[in-house]
Amino acid sequence: ENKAATAGEIKTLTQLLRQGPPAEKQQALHKLIAAGAEASLASCLSAPDPITVQLATVGLWECWLNEKGPDARRRMDEGIKLMESGELDGAQEVFQSLIMAYPDWAEAINKQATLLYLRGLAGDSLDLCRIVVQMKPHHFGAWNGMALCAVQMEAWETALEAAQEALRLQPSARANADIVQLAQTKLGLC
């Protein structure tokens, strides 16, 4: 959590995100993002209110994407746009340059993991996902990525563990529940 906001302010903003009216939820979200309050946002992923969960999810991605400032975010957005349009070589170049410039930026590593998964390199992608969750244990996206890679590799115990952790962090994510069920079936646990 960023020191610009006090612990008390973050607690109040988190309560507003969980229980406030829609306009106050939005304001609280923007302030939590600005404060880099990842742990507080992650705690909202298990809220009973789907709007709170959706806002917290968006908030975490914004924190992760903005972590290294506006110039790095612009480059990241370029890489994501290239990846989404199927220009994987260009995207890989962008993500690799971001990793070189910011070796401690978990999201640059996570996007490179996504790219490797899209290229069919599940093992390499899985290795990068593991680095991301070491850096950011509440990175539900990397846990999900790890589970998807493990499914691709038919590494069912890894798939089960990663999907269970992703589901623990983000209980409403149906895709993770589906992977848990698949892995349990493959392991003969159900």
Can you walk through the features of this model?
This protein has helices at residues 7-19, 22-35, 38-43, 50-66, 70-84, 88-101, 106-118, 122-135, 140-153, 156-169, 174-186. By secondary structure, the protein is mostly helical. Helix 7 runs antiparallel to helix 8.
End-to-end CA span: 40 Å
Structural class designation = mainly alpha
Quaternary class: single chain
Largest sheet: none
Q: H/E element string? A: HHHHHHHHHHH
Query: Mean pLDDT, as a whole number?
Result: 96
Number of strands: 0
Instruction: Report the radius of gyration as a whole number of Å.
Output: 17 Å
- Beta-sheet strand percentage? under 5%
Instruction: Count helical runs.
Output: 11
Helix content: over 70%
General shape = globular
Low-confidence stretches: none
Summarize the structure.
With 190 residues, the protein is an all-alpha fold.
Task: Note the topology.
Layout: H1 7-19, H2 22-35, H3 38-43, H4 50-66, H5 70-84, H6 88-101, H7 106-118, H8 122-135, H9 140-153, H10 156-169, H11 174-186
Helix pairs in contact: 1-2, 2-4, 5-6, 6-7, 7-8, 7-9, 8-9, 9-10, 9-11, 10-11
